[in-house]
């Protein structure tokens, strides 16, 4: 182990952060096993990717079968796994999404879908919402405002990207409606003072902010954005890279809301671990993008798209189970919040649950130390959890959808013990 860590340090750029030092030998379902045989339950789901659990047998089988046929096309020849994955994707995405294209990562899908919005509207402006995370490449880093550290050292970023507030009601110490009113007023002021809406190609939003702290967008906020978009000929884009593929116990977060997007970007769970992402929209918009205005070498890789089809075949049947797990988890975290001053807020959708840890429920001061204590405590007891939020104090609870109720309870029991231990440590 020490040897691998040293070799890792010698050759891997330290900028790429790893959450644990586990030296993995195998991973299956919830569990990752290290080279000594010790195992942990991955409640980080490979950072919200392995929604079906690691190495889901149907996904492995589909990938194996395709490996034996061919691995790569590079857009030289056409192939069935690409078309099948696109057909499946169209069937499960919101109704407006009729045509799609594939890419390799969430960042790339976001960049591509914004390019599509600009090209099809002939406008150059982009409105994003503070606290959003959209990736790390230059365009997507410009759209990302979940934490200034993702932008530090890279200025100037892209021009004509306008940042509007997102209703972080808990952090602002107010109720949701008040926070929504403030955000709508501020957006109206952006349109009045900074940029006329006729310059705006798209509003880009995560329907549940992920990296930014697991804040679901209030339904009224999305309704108003939908109305504004329609009024001004702006395209509404949902970045469902993290919220997609069952994470919210529906196919997409959009399924929870009446306000539907014009365009969508997806990634992470789409192929349960194979590098794949996608984006799309209505046929008339996608068809208006001329041949060669965008392209890819690896996007829609045959093996990754075969895996994606298997994911989409397996996912639908798991959603009712995920809804049951979600209800149970919210109940249990709600009970814990009654007994622990450290829990300030429990929020999210489905199995995308954020538990915000604070110094006290009165001050709401973010408590990253509490998170780190609990994380280390449960790690010793075989459970992996990660954080989110700009203050590092939101426990990101994202079990795979294949988790059983017993396993869910076991994980929450570990967190409860971690909270007790933190209480004792604080004195
Ligand atoms: C909402 C959202 N968009 C985009 C991205 C970027 O995806 P990737 O890391 O695959 O480039 C992420 C990654 O966490 C994400 O959560």
pLDDT averaged residue by residue: 98
Large-scale geometry: globular
Q: What's the main sheet like? A: 7 strands, mixed
Number of domains: 2
CATH superfamily of the largest domain: Type I PLP-dependent aspartate aminotransferase-like (Major domain)
Unreliable residue stretches: none
Distance separating the two termini: 36 Å
Bound molecules: pyridoxal-5'-phosphate
By oligomeric state, this entry counts as: single chain
Strand content: 15-25%
CATH architectural designation of the largest domain: 3-Layer(aba) Sandwich
**How many individual β-strands?**
17
Biggest sheet, spatial arrangement of strands: 4-12-11-10-7-5-6
**Within the CATH hierarchy, at the fold level, what is the topology of the largest domain?**
Aspartate Aminotransferase, domain 2
Helix fraction?
40-55%
Number of helices: 14
Structure class: alpha/beta
What is the rounded Rg? Answer: 21 Å
| CATH class label of the largest domain | Alpha Beta
Describe this structure in words.
This protein has two domains: about 1-55 and about 320-425, Aspartate Aminotransferase, domain 1, CATH 3.90.1150.10; about 55-315, Type I PLP-dependent aspartate aminotransferase-like (Major domain) (Aspartate Aminotransferase, domain 2, 3-Layer(aba) Sandwich), CATH 3.40.640.10. It has about 425 residues and is of the alpha/beta class. The chain is about 40% helix and about 15% strand. The chain starts with a helix and ends with a helix. It is built from 14 helices and 17 strands. It has helices at about 1-10, 45-50, 55-70, 80-90, 105-120, 140-145, 170, 175-195, 220-230, 285, 300-315, 320-340, 370-380, 405-425, and strands at about 25-30, 30-35, 40, 100-105, 125-130, 160-165, 200-205, 210, 215, 235-240, 265, 275-280, 345-350, 350-355, 385, 385-390, 395. The protein has a seven-stranded mixed β-sheet, sandwiched between helices. Strands 1-2-3-15 form a four-stranded mixed β-sheet. Strands 13-14-17-16 form a four-stranded antiparallel β-sheet. Pyridoxal-5'-phosphate (PLP) binds near residues 107, 110, 135, 211 and 241. Pyridoxal-5'-phosphate binds near residues 107, 110, 133, 239 and 241.
